[in-house]
Amino acid sequence: MKELSVSNLLGIKYLSAEDLHLIFETADQFKKVINRPIKKVPSLRDITIANLFFENSTRTRLSFELAEKRLSADVINFSASSSSVSKGETLIDTVNNILAMKVDMVVMRHPNPGAGVFLSKHVNASIVNAGDGAHEHPTQALLDVFSIREKYGDISGKKIVIVGDIMHSRVALSNIFALKKLGAEVKVCGPNSLMPKHIESLGVKVESNLIKALEWCDIANMLRVQHERMEHSYFPSTREYVQQYGVNKTLLETLSKPITIMHPGPINRGVEITSDVADSEHSIILNQVENGVAIRMAVMYLLASKIKNYEN
Ligand code: CP
């Protein structure tokens, strides 16, 4: 059986193109499973997984939990707001206490960039990063690229523009890593104040003009402005942002060809995209959400295979 080159999923930057293809091929199989009348397989019935969410989440948290249950894993859920973190317990102590209950894998969302990498060096479990600050959101990028592959068949040569708050977006960074590893062309588009200074060192081009960016691309991945990560005022006003970087149906109709619209969610309707764009025939936003379950099943199945191999 083919194996991942890693024992944790900490970021797309640690994966090879072969790892990405293996995850997608495995997700293809799990997508068939979750479209059957009986949506479960017994693959992880001997594995216990803890979902640790130190930040709010709808899609990622529910999608991981559903994926774990579809794989027949035992699942426990931890939310920082109702835990003993408020009494001063450290991250390592929290996780080691959970692991003492014989947990094999930890899925963690955390506000601090690098929290997953830090944890992986201090605890004895497989760690899956479910989003760490503005650093990486690897399973989001995997489901995004899987959704592009599903629509277009191949990633190589596809032109993708990521539009919005690039500076605070873990989704942007993970998407850039994944798309570049698979041969896509990537541009980023957004206000200068929300554009990281060295972004072009990742092999992407900056296009500040939204119309030019949309005319160039096959696919536009629209991002939310992450006000919650802004310590200083990088953001002039929502009205100006919508005028320069908001996408509506009228604007899309001026383009020479239709483009595919993606969004990781949650959407701020009327800001980065209008409802007639989010809900249009060219939007694959709900396909992305659907594919999140199969992708997360694939990731946990492949990581669990490595745990089982170590035990043998
Ligand atoms: N895309 C995403 O991470 O959404 P949630 O924050 O709702 O999990």
Automatic annotation (TrEMBL):
Keyword check for Transferase: yes
InterPro entries: Asp/Orn_carbamoyltranf_P-bd, Asp/Orn_carbamoylTrfase, Asp/Orn_carbamoylTrfase_sf, Asp_carbamoyltransf, Asp_carbamoyltransf_Asp/Orn-bd
Aspartate/ornithine carbamoyltransferase carbamoyl-P binding domain span: 8-150
Chain ranges of the Aspartate/ornithine carbamoyltransferase Asp/Orn-binding domain: 157-303
Chain sites annotated for binding carbamoyl phosphate: R59, T60, R109, H137, Q140, G265, P266
Membrane spanning stretches: none
Role: Catalyzes the condensation of carbamoyl phosphate and aspartate to form carbamoyl aspartate and inorganic phosphate, the committed step in the de novo pyrimidine nucleotide biosynthesis pathway.
Name of the protein in its database record: Aspartate carbamoyltransferase
Organism: Psychroflexus lacisalsi
Gene field: pyrB
